[in-house]
Amino acid sequence: MAKLIDGKMIAGKVMEEVAEGSRRLVAQYGEEARPNMTLVLVGSDPVSKKLVDLKAKDCEKTGITPTVIALSETTSEEKLLRLVDRLNSDEDVKAILCQLPVPEHISTKKLLAAIAPEKDVDGFSARIDSDDYDIAACTPAAVMRMLKESGVEVAGKHCVVVGRDNMVGKPMAIQLLLNDATVTVCHSKTAELAEHTRRADVLIVAVQKPRFVTGDMVKEGAVVIDVGMNYIDGHPVGDVDFDSVEPKASMITPVPGGVGPMTRAGLLVNALKLAERKTK
Ligand code: GUN
Q: Which atom of ligand 1 is nearest to the CA of 167?
């Protein structure tokens, strides 16, 4: 039986730390030092709307002031980029998040590039040549924290990341490297995928394909982190086939209740860091 890594519990702990950090900032520098976050939502996708609402509530719980800007589906790219520009130059705005995905007529690449790095709460602009990776991409940072809280040391271990997108796979590989892991990144063109995944001491899966990784692809005793969130008949399902993988793993994250709550907590950590930087 694998040990379950309880993301909800760890996220609760992280949120308490952020709330304490917010209190400390305000006590030391006054109300104007309070962290804040401007959340931009374009369109009416119900999942995105719900996520933005949850993120705003998380902010409120941790002493971060949220501002939600909801724009219509037909908002032009130009208008959105102008808004981001305005938020970039607004001294009172400390953190900006544009909820993805945005409607197809808007370039995600242009939008993310437009957000000033010093306000990029998602950590998408964390540079590959940065040593400290202080404002790190939230989901990979969340995974690193979960590993740490579970007593998993990645230094010297073989960590295999399945998925290479900009939000998780690529920054995940970098964060593992910065923590001295040996890293293999697999993707849709990888030949003999299972040959690689079976060599993983720590296997991290982020492909958004339900139950993609099965028990035969996992080494006995591996630590398995499932970043996926898919829905089958309205039920949340990860990228890992929990039933066949769990008996082989030493530790595994459930879906839901694993990486998801931790990703949102990672956003709050970044919001606090951005506000702290403004006081220095
Ligand atoms: N949409 C789904 N996950 C995320 C995220 O982590 N950040 C942003 N900005 N949009 C998302």
A: 6
Fold designation for 29-117: Rossmann fold (3.40.50)
For the Cβ of 142 lying below 6 angstroms from any atom of ligand 1, the answer is no
How does pLDDT run across 109-143, given as a tens digit for each residue? Answer: 999 999 999 999 999 887 666 655 678 899 999 99
Residue ranges, CATH 3.40.50.10860, the chain: 29-117
Query: Does 261 sit behind a cis peptide bond, omega within 30 degrees of 0 on the bond before it?
Result: no
| Element at 41 (helix H, strand E) | strand 36-42
Which tens digit of pLDDT belongs to each residue from 7-36? Answer: 999 999 999 999 999 999 999 999 999 999
Cα separation, 46 vs 18, in Å, equals 28
Q: Which residues contact 215 (CB under 8 A, 6 or more apart)?
A: 241, 244, 245, 247, 248
Report the atom number in ligand 1 closest to the C-alpha of 139. Answer: 6
pTM for this model (two decimals):
0.93
Q: Show the tokens assigned to 203.
A: 């296997």
pLDDT reading at 223 higher than 90: yes
Domain with CATH 3.40.50.720 in the chain: 138-260
- CATH code for the part of the protein at 138-260: 3.40.50.720
Q: Which residues are catalytic?
A: 55, 99, 122
